[in-house]
């Protein structure tokens, strides 16, 4: 009995070492894209895996989407199937593809969130793993952004807050003391930028990952907010224009006529006797 157990253990370990896996992992830049763009990447990924694995079906393939407290798990690779209630905007995506352990490609894992974006490809054939990893990474980098993520927001948020506070305080004190139009313009600019940061969804502009059902363009999704901001800036600009005009008039004063030199008279006195 002991001999049989030892033989089984030997065979098990030999099979494990014979099918050693090769893994490649990389972090992807920030992604703020549409469902359609991500769906195209998933479809291409599945085709590459199917070719490498000679059409063998996976043991498991699923997508997990998160939006706040809502979490949706979808079998397969379709992001928005008709029978699933998927939010219009998701903040996290996880895609898992698992195949048999003896195939060239055994696992592909995508984990996208505000914190980080990870791509992992694993398999028994290093050449196949390298090729699929490079192709999928290239597709993701092509639709990514250069700036974003929780780290950037943690740095830029306090810097912008203190910079606007210092500029607004300095320009307000300068205008109170000297009543200069330049300090008033700086103060109005600081107030306008502060209002923009409050009104606009700046968190989305610097998000590490966001996926939308429609057009991910900022101008398209926030057209009404941009119109309101334009109206607000116009309202702020009206009193500035009035103050500038009044300052110009008061500085010019009355119009002075041309000055003529006063004729000088000289008297010649004769010598006193």
Strand order of the largest sheet: 1-8-7-6-3-4
Helix content: 40-55%
User: What string, H for helix and E for strand, traces the elements in order?
Assistant: HEEHEEEEEEHHHHEHH
Query: How big a fraction of the residues is strand?
Result: 15-25%
Number of strands: 9
Number of continuous helical runs: 8
- The shape, in one word, is elongated
Contiguous runs where pLDDT drops below 50 for at least 5 residues: 219-225, 253-257
Q: What does the model show?
A:
The chain is an alpha+beta fold and 273 residues long. The protein has helices at 2-18, 35-52, 126-142, 150-178, 181-199, 202-205, 218-221, 223-252, and strands spanning 22-27, 31-34, 60-67, 70-75, 89-90, 92-98, 107-112, 117-123, 209-212. It has 2 domains: 18-142, no CATH class; 150-250. The protein contains 8 helices and 9 strands. The strands form 2 sheets. It has a 6-stranded antiparallel beta sheet with strand order 1-8-7-6-3-4, with helices on one face. Strands 2-9-5 form a 3-stranded mixed beta sheet. Helix 2 (35-52) packs antiparallel against helix 3, helix 4 runs antiparallel to helix 5 and helix 5 (181-199) packs antiparallel against helix 8. The N and C termini lie far apart (162 Å).
């Amino acid at each position: 009995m002991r001999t049989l157990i030892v033989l089984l253990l030997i065979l098990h370990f030999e099979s494990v070492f014979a099918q050693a896996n090769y893994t490649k992992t990389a972090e992807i830049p920030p992604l703020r894209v549409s469902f359609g763009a991500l769906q195209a990447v998933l479809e291409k990924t599945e085709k590459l895996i199917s070719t490498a694995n000679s059409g063998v079906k996976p043991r498991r393939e699923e997508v997990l989407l998160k939006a706040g407290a809502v979490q949706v798990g979808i079998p397969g690779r379709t992001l928005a199937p008709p029978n699933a209630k998927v939010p219009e905007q998701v903040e996290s995506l996880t895609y898992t593809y698992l195949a048999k352990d003896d195939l060239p490609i055994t696992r592909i894992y995508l984990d996208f969130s505000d914190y980080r974006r990870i791509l992992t490809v694993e398999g028994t054939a290093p050449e196949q793993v390298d090729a699929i990893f490079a192709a999928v990474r290239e597709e993701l980098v092509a639709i990514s952004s250069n700036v974003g993520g929780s780290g950037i927001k943690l740095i830029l948020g306090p810097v912008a807050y203190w910079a606007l506070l210092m500029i607004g305080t300095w320009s307000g004190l300068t205008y109170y003391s000297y009543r200069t139009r330049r300090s008033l313009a700086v103060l109005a600019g600081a107030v306008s930028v502060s209002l923009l940061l409050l009104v606009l969804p700046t968190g989305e502009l610097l998000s590490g990952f966001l996926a939308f059902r429609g057009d991910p363009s900022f101008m398209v999704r926030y057209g009404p907010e941009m119109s309101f901001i334009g109206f607000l800036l116009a309202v702020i600009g009206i009193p500035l224009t009035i103050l500038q005009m009044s300052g110009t008039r008061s500085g010019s004063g009355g119009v002075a006529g041309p000055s003529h030199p006063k004729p000088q008279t000289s008297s010649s006195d004769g010598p006193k006797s």
